[in-house]
């Protein structure tokens, strides 16, 4: 899935399968991504302010610690160590 530079503000993507999605520079402000599968997704430059990622799978996803600090909730997120 290629969504480069898309605006998805306030969308409800609970449980979405975004495995390997290309989400570079996507505006995900306040998006609900709890229980979403983002394995291998490329979130380079994506805006994650206020995102809900509870129980989401971020294994092998390209995302920075700086981006993760802007997330509203990330309880029990699966990530590489």
What does this structure look like?
5% of the residues lie in helices and 0% in strands. It has one helix at 65-68. The protein is globular and about 25 Å long. The N and C termini lie far apart (26 Å). The mean pLDDT is 94. It comes from Thermosporothrix sp. COM3.
Strand content: under 5%
Number of helices: 1
**CATH architectural label:** 3 Solenoid
Fraction in helix:
under 10%
* Amino- and carboxy-terminal Cα gap: 26 Å
Radius of gyration from CA coordinates? 11 Å
- Number of self-contained structural domains: 1
For the secondary structure, the number of strands is: 0
What characterizes the major β-sheet?
A: none
Averaged pLDDT: 94
CATH C-level: Mainly Beta
The 3D shape can be described as: globular
Structural class: little secondary structure
Instruction: Write down the CATH topology.
Output: Pectate Lyase C-like
Q: Which key terms come to mind for this protein?
A:
Pectate Lyase C-like; globular; 1 helix; little secondary structure; single chain; 81 residues
Summarize the structure.
It is built from one helix and no strands. By secondary structure, it is largely without helices or strands.
List the helices and strands and how they pair.
Elements: H1 65-68
Protein name: Pentapeptide repeat-containing protein
Pfam families: Pentapeptide
């Amino acid at each position: 899935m290629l969504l480069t530079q898309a605006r998805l503000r306030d969308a409800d993507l609970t449980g979405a399968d975004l495995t390997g999605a290309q989400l570079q520079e996507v505006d995900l402000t306040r998006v609900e991504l709890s229980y979403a599968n983002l394995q291998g997704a490329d979130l380079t430059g994506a805006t994650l302010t206020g995102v809900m990622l509870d129980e989401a799978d971020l294994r092998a996803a390209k995302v920075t610690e700086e981006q993760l600090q802007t997330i509203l909730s990330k309880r029990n997120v699966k990530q590489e160590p």
